[in-house]
Amino acid sequence: MQAARGFTLLELLVAVAIFALLGVGSYRLLASTISVRDTAKAHDAALIQLQRSFIVMNRDLSQAVARPIRDQYGDAVA
Q1: What letter would DSSP give residue 3?
Q2: Number of domains comprising the chain
Q3: Is the residue at 56 inside a domain?
Q4: Which structural domain, as residue segments, surrounds residue 34?
């Protein structure tokens, strides 16, 4: 009589459990990666907006001209 070949039910259950744990771990890793990506995109957008505001302020301030202070009659004060 030949010995039966193949896997036992217990071996199959252990293999399925291991694959399920790997699947859950992969899903959590993917979800975490997507969350970090979304957060990074939001921070990147805020940084771009801040940089643009600094550029506009720099352009405005570079065009400022020193003018004398005048009184109510239009005469230069000191």
Answers
A1: P
A2: 1
A3: yes
A4: 13-61
Residue 20 domain-assigned (yes or no): yes
On whether residue 8 sits in a domain, the answer given is no
Within-domain flag for 1: no
Contacts of 77 (CB under 8 A, 6+ apart): 68, 69, 70, 71
Residue indicated by tokens 């252990």: 14
| Between 35 and 68, residue with greater pLDDT | 35
Q: How many helices (H) and strands (E) does the chain have?
A: 1, 0
Cα separation, 30 vs 21, in Å, equals 14
Q: What tens digit of pLDDT does each residue of 2-55 get?
A: 777 889 999 999 999 999 999 999 999 999 999 999 999 999 999 999 999 999
